[in-house]
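Input.
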Amino acid sequence: MHQATVFLLSALLPLSLSSERDPFAWLYGWSQRYHYNSLQADAKAGACPDACDCPPSFPVAMYCDGRGLTAVPAVPAHVKYLYLQNNAITAVPDSALVNATNLIWLMMHHNQLRSENIGEKAFSKLEQLERLYLQHNNMTSLPPNLPRTLRDLRADHNGIEKVTPAELEGMDNLTILYLHDNAVTDMSTSLKGLKSLTLLDISNNKLKKIPEALPEHLHQLYLESNSIESLPVDFLSHFTQLQYIRMAHNQLTDKGIPPNTFNVTGLVELDLSFNKLERIPPVSTTLRHLYLQANQIKEFTLGSFCSVVDVTNFSRLQTLRLDGNEIGRQDIPSESLLCLRQASSIEV
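Output.
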């Protein structure tokens, strides 16, 4: 019994000392304890490429960013976090990531990737991938067969023209989707199945209408700088968590906004600036920030903020921007002091 106790203590002692020396031992200690021998045995196959850094203190990461690379280097199988941003990589052939099946993060933003140079199965084996950054490349479409495990997909600042349902189908875990600054004209029903999506940014594209079947759990919806002229009836009725809507720099008119579209509880911020509105649309008394600058508004309608004006009924609006319209401060009725009592900034 005494010998067994000594053996157990001697086995645990190096681990406890290691934890005291390195405060991050909890993060990679399992890798050292359980995979050290296998990595050593396969050291040649798992060697870090000369152009990259693989720090011993974080052996599951491989840093190849900003190295002037024109091709994807060989990736050891144990790597989970791969940083390839700020290079000149033009292609991802099917064979490029065939061994990188443990990747969780893949950063390939600010390269020169072209859609025709991305293999049909280039990403299909990455069955643990959660974060994929492809922004600031030269793609005209999303890569095919993306992992359905993705939680964060960023493909903004490309030349993407269309998003099809097949490209996003089955991405039940996707919560963040950045597609802004592309050339998208049509999204069809590609967003329908993204039941976990909370942030969608498709601003600065060429959309003429609101995408169909927007996910009901959206928290932030950004549609600025498109060519949207109208909104569908009951546009916001099915959302349960939406708080931020930005639709500045579109072609919205009074006729294109159904009555009481924005008079829904839950909204915190609404940006309709730089459109073609002539009236202030009715909003909920719970709205906090409203941006209507640079429209064609000719009248300050207090009823847009408060249907009833008295001591107990008032708007929670804190910020109201009406500058760049056809009204001045003299057009604001005196009753506004009661209705907009919480407003710290009103610009006309």
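The first helix runs from residue 2 to 21.
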